[in-house]
Design brief:
The chain contains seven helices and 14 strands. The chain is an alpha/beta fold. A hairpin with a 2-residue loop joins strand 7 and strand 8.
């Protein structure tokens, strides 16, 4: 599995390109990634999926344009974030930001779904708290966790649909039950690990 990290947008979103045996998926898509096409070509890979960790504007902002360029790409989102998605531009107006183009969702996910990518199987884990439909995408010893957990920190819960106790439960009862060596690829900032966060994340220990 090839993993390429792109830091995109004004608030430093991490978008991740995953490639396995000629097939590719991108985890979140904040805005245009100019080098995306060349990286796909270098690896003889076809973009199959956009895997959204949740529906906040900074994780979905470029998806509509990407769908226009790659019309066969399928976009995935957890079903519990449908309301967040549909209310995106009401939120943008409320905080004084420009509206964005809302992407079409092809597949609404649920806990336990599996997505085949090349030689790999991606497992979907529901991680509510930051938003009702936050998810993690698990491949081998990696989890792409969106804004659920960060290095020494956790996702904010003061936005619509957020809930602190639910978020902490998602981290303790799901992420922290994974193998200690699991790498956590976060939605912002540096990567971390289950082992490190269990020892040092003061928000959940």
């Amino acid at each position: 599995m090839i993993v390429r990290k792109f830091v995109v947008g004004n608030i430093g979103n991490n978008n991740y390109l995953l490639i396995s045996n000629g097939e590719a998926a991108i985890v979140d898509y904040t805005n245009d990634i100019p080098e995306l096409e060349s990286v796909l070509k270098e690896n003889n890979a076809t973009l199959r999926y956009v895997l959204l960790t949740h529906a906040h504007f900074d994780h979905i902002g470029g998806v509509k344009k990407l769908q226009s360029k790659y019309p066969n790409v399928k976009v995935y989102l957890h079903t519990d974030d449908k309301e967040i998605l549909e209310g995106t531009n009401d939120f943008m107006s409320m905080v004084g930001l420009e509206p964005i183009e809302i992407p079409k969702i092809d597949v609404y996910l649920k806990e336990g779904d599996k997505i085949k990518l090349g030689d790999e199987t991606i497992d979907v884990i529901h991680l509510p708290g930051h938003t009702p439909g936050g998810v993690g995408y698990i491949i081998d010893n990696m989890i792409f966790s969106g804004d659920t957990i960060f290095l020494n920190n956790i996702g904010r819960t003061d936005l619509p649909g957020g809930d602190f106790e639910t978020l902490v439960s998602s981290i303790k009862n799901k992420i922290f039950t994974m193998d200690d060596k699991t790498i956590i690829y976060t939605g912002h900032g540096s990567d971390t690990s289950v082992e490190y966060e269990k020892k040092y994340n003061s928000f959940v220990i």
